[in-house]
Amino acid sequence: MSPKRPGGDGPFPRPVAPVIPKGEPGAAPTVERRVPPSAKTHKDGPDPDDLYAALDLGTNSCRMLIAQPKGSQLHVVDSFSKSVQLGQGLEASGRMSRASMARAVGALKICQKKLSKHRVEVDRARLVATEACRRAVNGSEFIGLVKRETGLELEIIKPEEEAQLAVVSCAPLVSTRTEQLLVVDIGGGSTELVWIDLSRVPKLERPKAIMRLHQGFDYDDSVFPRAKVVDWISIPLGVATLKDMYDDVTDDGARFALMSWFFEEQLAEFSPYTDAAEQTLKGFQIIGTSGTVTTVAASHLGLRRYDRNKVDGLRMTSTQIDTVINGYLALGPDGRRRDPRIGRDRQTLIMSGAAILQALLRAWPTDRLSVADRGLREGLLYAQMSRDGVLEDGPY
After folding, report:
1. Residue 296: exposure state from Cβ atoms within 10 A (0-12, 13-18, ≥19)
2. 123 found inside a domain
3. Does one domain contain both 292 and 207?
4. Domain that includes residue 348, residue range
5. How far apart are CA 117 and CA 177, in angstroms?
6. CA 333: distance to chain centroid?
7. Are 151 and 300 contained in the same domain?
8. Which of 122, 157, 192 represents a domain boundary (last residue)?
9. How far is the C-alpha of 382 from the C-alpha of 173, rounded, in Å?
10. Claim to verify: residue 360 and residue 230 sit in the same structural domain
């Protein structure tokens, strides 16, 4: 199971549409910046003219956000999240099962009703599917089923776009002191890692430079300071697929150790894995975005009821993370099942996610990890709003 990189001449794809100078045949019309009110409303609720939607159908969960632009941030109008376990059994059979597809379609019907209720325009909604649909031999068949049953047109995106959007979503959490940034997105079926060099970007411009990566990573350096993507990798192992690989190991501690060791082996193809080990990293920041990372943070804070405002942006030390993970191991499967901090949807997957997280902290010795309760959905929304010119420049 080798990590994935795209073909071509760079670590990220260029935009599909060519950039044509203004005034020449085929050039896109000039788009004037629309500056919406901070919370523009309609007599029946938020003004549909300002609403955008992003749906992420992953290997384990179906998530959707409907939001308005608000300055340089997002104002969430409605949201949806449900565990659908679309990738259940995929590792063994190579196919999505009828039961898992039925669960996903059920969740997508709810999303369709929300989109209709808020009257979100088709060109302001991106509905994407990721690793399970990429890998399954019946992925295209499933996309057709979704269209027939719900009317929604899902788009299977490539690993490189998934990585790109995860990075953009984390822009507001990038410290102005950060010179080397590693963004880690632990999904259900894959894990994306992106290493970015910010050392040549003025400190106050660093978060903005990350936000501009939605433009396709080839904007003019003479106009804006550029964040340099050193390397990226998509490892086809996430919390669900890694768990399935070691389901036959009965000892809880041994299974955890094997998962962590195996995941670290997959990092060998990622150039910063060896390069960073040979030097002392200055101004290094890891941002982790996933249900695993936010669950570990909630456990550290002792939250019996999840609170995004307390978790998003939290910085945890490696010692604090190890303490939480060792506590999970001490609880055992039965104890984790009863732990309200973990939750029923996460308890069967938390140890495979923790194994990935611990391997990453072992690979790049650092005493801090920034927790991001954000990901593909936020990246999709930021990219759409930036495209339409309705966000203020930069993430702040």
Report:
1. buried
2. yes
3. yes
4. 161-376
5. 43
6. 27
7. no
8. 157
9. 14
10. yes
Contact 171/385 with Cβ under 8 angstroms?
no
Evaluate whether residue 142 is within a structural domain: yes
Segment 63-95, tens digit of pLDDT: 999 999 988 788 999 999 998 989 888 888 999
Cα(388)–Cα(31) distance, integer angstroms: 7
* Angle made by CA atoms 331, 335, 337, in degrees to the nearest 5: 130
Query: 139, 157, 175 — which closes off a domain?
Result: 157
132 occurs within a structural domain? yes
Q: Are 105 and 145 in contact (CB under 8 A)?
A: yes
Following DSSP, what letter does each residue of 261-315 receive, concatenated?
A: HHHHHGGGGSHHHHHGGGS--SSEEEEEESHHHHHHHHHHHT-SS--HHHHTT-E
- Please report whether residue 262 resides in a domain: yes
CA distance 55 to 124: 11
Tens of pLDDT, residues 317-369: 999 999 999 999 999 999 999 999 897 778 899 999 999 999 999 888 678 89
Distance between CA atoms of 224 and 260, rounded to whole angstroms? 40
Question: How many domains are contained in the chain?
Answer: 2
Residue 257 in tokens: 């150790």
